[in-house]
């Protein structure tokens, strides 16, 4: 196994192939793309790999191949990989007690159940907690908060999805190596796979979040899945032990018995078992790395939806039955149709007109009283030099000019709410009742911010919603000074 910290040559991009050469009909993939576009609100990207070749890839504009995407809990599968590598280097064991690594953070009188908690239990989400430990303190170390949390169940006997347990894995790696999980994985995983510029958020103690916060590109997700499909081998090197991959992706603990749910097929070491003999890493709002060993395939997906089972169902309904054991005759016409469909994908833009008689009333600045959105003023003006309307927001003392394309995306940057200096693509339109709706797509995240402006003259009403998971609109009323 390669445990060198040298700088290996970055892997080339995954090879590309016509779908038929790898045993998949282009028309079936096109049917998958169409169904995903219609049924999932909203898809951001996907890559399908068969027999080691990318046979289809698509991004819903403004999402793009070169842009990283937040992984949410798909980050967990990378953290468990770091644990597996550290075990291979002789630095720890899955049977090590968690308290062994943090004697300074342990309660004065740890309970027997806490003493019994092992690294294996962190990996399997079977720590014995009834509720997930809260890691929100800005003063107390998060490791201390975790170890102080009640452990009412015997570790290893009770499954509870637990991002705090993954944070502890990250903390263990940092404790035994002196490096964050991000830095530890750079020479061992990211660089050999050609994953460039990964970023990972950290706790107040400087420890990678572990359970969330990793940002990489869609093809990087596909490469990670292909590495696991190849039992840890990559370009002639054994990057991750095959024994670890077998254990990590096997059913280590039960998490339910519903045969129709991909969340009740068992859980491994930070990997979910799926139906159809598959396994996956996944994250909130539809970030997926699905590995199908029986079909020798990987599906990487990013999305922004609350219906994660729906995302997988489209894969099972359309892609799974399309994978044939042998190559198919070339079908250039179907392949061209597929390519045209992939090139035309876009996130929904607001529908309506490019102009409105109501526009003049919104061309001056409206000021808002203090509000939780920290929105201080709004102004909307047409830009005669481009096919865009400029939305000017003052948020928390900073003025921002956001061009909104009509039936197109215009890129700039924005700071709003919890998002600071984020790349954004915006589009907008006027509706029949004189309202203007703008969609601000934060295309390195899963989030869009929708702003609907109504009124004008002396008063402006602004509704702010977030997609996905937005809940009710934040309703604000501003007036001219």
List keywords for this structure.
single chain, 481 residues, alpha+beta, Beta-lactamase, Lipocalin, 2 domains, 6-stranded antiparallel sheet, 11 helices, 24% helix, 25% strand, globular
Helix/strand layout:
Elements: H1 26-39, E1 43-50, E2 53-59, E3 69-70, H2 75-88, H3 112-116, H4 119-124, H5 142-148, H6 163-177, H7 181-193, E4 199-200, E5 214-216, H8 218-229, E6 233-234, E7 237-238, H9 242-248, E8 272-273, E9 279-283, E10 287-292, E11 297-303, H10 308-319, H11 332-343, E12 366-367, E13 375-383, E14 388-395, E15 398-405, E16 410-416, E17 419-430, E18 436-441, E19 448-456, E20 459-467, E21 474-479
Antiparallel strand pairs: 1-2, 1-11, 3-5, 4-5, 6-7, 8-9, 9-10, 10-11, 12-13, 13-14, 14-15, 16-17, 17-18, 18-19, 19-20, 20-21
Helix pairs in contact: 1-10, 1-11, 2-6
Number of separate structural domains: 2
Strand content: 25-35%
Rg for CA atoms: 24 Å
The CATH class of the largest domain: Alpha Beta
Q: Quick one: overall form? A: globular
Helix content: 10-25%
């Amino acid at each position: 196994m390669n445990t060198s910290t040298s700088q290996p040559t970055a892997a080339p991009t995954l090879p590309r192939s016509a779908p038929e050469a790898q045993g998949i009909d282009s028309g079936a993939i096109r049917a998958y793309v169409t169904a995903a576009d219609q049924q999932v609100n909203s898809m951001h990207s996907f890559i399908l790999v068969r027999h080691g070749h990318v046979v289809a890839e698509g991004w819903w504009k403004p999402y793009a191949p070169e842009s990283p995407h937040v992984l949410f809990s798909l980050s967990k599968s990378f953290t468990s990989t770091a644990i597996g590598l550290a075990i291979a280097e002789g630095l720890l064991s899955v049977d090590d007690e968690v308290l062994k690594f943090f004697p300074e953070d342990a309660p004065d009188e740890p309970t027997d159940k806490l003493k019994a908690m092992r690294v294996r239990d962190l990996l399997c989400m079977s720590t014995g907690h009834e509720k997930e430990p809260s890691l929100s303190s800005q003063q107390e170390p998060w490791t201390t908060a975790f170890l102080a949390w009640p452990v009412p169940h015997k570790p290893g006997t009770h499954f509870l999805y637990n991002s705090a347990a993954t944070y502890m894995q990250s903390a263990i790696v940092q404790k035994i190596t002196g490096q964050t999980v991000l830095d530890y994985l750079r020479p061992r995983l990211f660089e050999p796979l050609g994953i460039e510029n990964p970023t990972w958020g950290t706790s107040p103690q400087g420890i990678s979040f572990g359970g969330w916060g990793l940002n990489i590109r869609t093809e990087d997700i596909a490469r990670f899945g292909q590495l696991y499909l190849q039992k840890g081998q990559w370009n002639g090197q054994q990057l991750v032990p095959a024994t670890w991959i077998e254990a990590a992706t096997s059913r280590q603990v039960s998490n339910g018995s519903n045969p129709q749910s991909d969340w009740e097929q068992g859980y491994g070491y930070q990997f979910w078992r799926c139906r159809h003999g598959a396994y996956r890493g996944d994250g909130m709002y539809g970030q997926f790395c699905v590995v199908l060993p029986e079909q020798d395939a990987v599906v990487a997906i990013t999305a922004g939806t609350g219906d994660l089972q729906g995302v997988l169902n489209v894969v099972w309904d359309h892609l799974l039955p399309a994978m044939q054991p042998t190559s198919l005759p070339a079908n250039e016409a179907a392949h061209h149709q597929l390519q045209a469909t992939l090139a035309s994908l876009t996130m929904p833009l607001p529908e309506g007109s490019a102009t409105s008689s109501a526009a003049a009333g919104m061309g001056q600045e409206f000021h808002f009283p203090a509000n939780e959105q920290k929105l201080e003023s709004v102004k909307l003006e047409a830009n005669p030099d481009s096919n865009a309307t400029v939305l000017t927001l003052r948020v928390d003392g900073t003025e921002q000019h956001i061009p909104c394309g009509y039936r197109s995306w215009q890129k700039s940057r924005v700071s709003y709410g919890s998002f600071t200096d984020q790349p954004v693509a915006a589009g907008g339109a006027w509706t029949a009742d004189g309202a203007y709706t703008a969609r601000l797509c934060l295309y390195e995240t899963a989030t869009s911010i929708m702003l609907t402006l109504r009124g004008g003259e002396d008063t402006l009403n602004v509704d702010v919603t977030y997609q996905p998971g937005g809940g009710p609109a934040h309703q604000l009323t501003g007036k001219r000074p």
